[in-house]
Amino acid sequence: MTKKRLDRDKKWGFQGFPYYQMRMDNEDFHGLVSVIKLISGDYFYWEMPKAGKIPVCGEGMLWLQLIPDGRYRAITAKFLPESRTVQGVKYSKSVSVWYVDVIDGWGYDVDGVAYFTDQYLDVIFDVEGDVVIEDHDELDEAYSSGELSEEQYRRAIKEGDAIVSELCSDIEKTQLWCENILKYALKRIESGDNIFKKNV
């Protein structure tokens, strides 16, 4: 299993971007919330079966990351710029795509940045109805090799199924949920209300 920091300073190279994290407890969400502001960078796209070419990072985008209490998932909602215009293309929705990691747990690094332990299985979905399950083969291999216990393996499968059922069955509801959480998080960032921040 791989340790992934929520400031995404490793694989994605976001180490210079403003990063905020906070504990949130309200009617919409209970758990850890982080926001990354992508203040520069060329656009990078993923190709999805129905949605086609969709932006996942680039100048003006925001990444909202959520680790809900009592669950084994890290949700990343990739928000488009406020104008929702990317290189001349106008998007009707605020989020381009969601990427949900099934995780084994999470914690804080010595510098205060939260991390999670990736348990291979991922669910990717978008507003056009694409739902893609990735790295099931890696999960199977980790179980076969003894890296994962039977309990961890079964829990990961169950969590993946729950993600699809709870987040992908009503995309409009999921989008509104994420928008509400982001609005509240941005208000707290603006006021400095019990926020951990980096590169700000």
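Second entry:
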Amino acid sequence: MRYPKFLPKNGTIGFVAPSFGCSTEPYRTAFLNAQKKWTDLGYRLDLGPNCYEGSGIGISNTPELCAQELMEYYQSDRNACLISCGGGELMCEILEHMDFGKLKTAAPKWYMGYSDNTNFTFLLTTLCDTASIYGPCAATFGMEPWHESLMDTMRLLTGEQLEVYGYDRWEIESRKDETNPLAPYNLTEQKILRRFPDQDTEFSGRLLGGCVDCLVNLLGTEFDGVQAFAEKYREDGVIWFLECCDLNVMAIRRAMWQMEHAGWFRFVKGFLIGRPAVYGQEIMGMDQYRAVLGILEQYHVPVIMDADIGHLPPMMPLITGSLATVSVRENELSVRMRME
């Protein structure tokens, strides 16, 4: 596994928009404030041409121009790392315009984002054997004040901290909108981990995963390198971290079935399942827990659900591709990542 150099003190953070840019509110104002916060911390900034674009369909610009920006900024020596401006809908359409052969031989660089950015965080790891960070997008850092998870993310990006912990409370309904673009998380819900089996546990393996909506879209295409990745790291095994955006509980169940029958879960050591954005839904007796467990329980490995990953923040930043040890003690979750 190739690991990038961490963001140095007073280094340059690059920003790209291969998914949505920050062209509309509340994202534009939040992104501007995030830039101020980073410059106040001493960092320099390197903004790509699509950061404020909104002319694309489901992404910031045309697939060709989004791919061009990402290729250029990833290979550039003007910035030390890249943070995606935001998530979106159709980042998958840039992939045919990317040159993963070049990226595999380019100097590794941290790329951070989540949701639609799974299309790059996941493929950097599975196709290029390069670690990435599944974590918050740029506009999130505009909130006042920063939540602890954002400070954890910066400490991870700078290499100061390689272990992350779950948080006490989470947000089910955001207060961030056009009239309140810098709103902090609305932490109304108490975190309750669901553990299957319901016992303290510890397990290790390579972290791999992202947004299931995107993952099943990649499955079976020319960009699906999961089998080769799993085989390469079979001695370590894989810890899958998975979370969902638009999928209802039946779609989650179908997605789990599809990944299982594609052989993606070979050599699995455990699962970390984030809270789905469609939270608390039940259809025909199927809830978010049965949707997952009905497929995954056959592997007889720990399944930890309602973890702080994904669309219902806060989220723990995770290094995709790292060798990690997950510890669960009652309602507390920690992930210790090693660059091996």
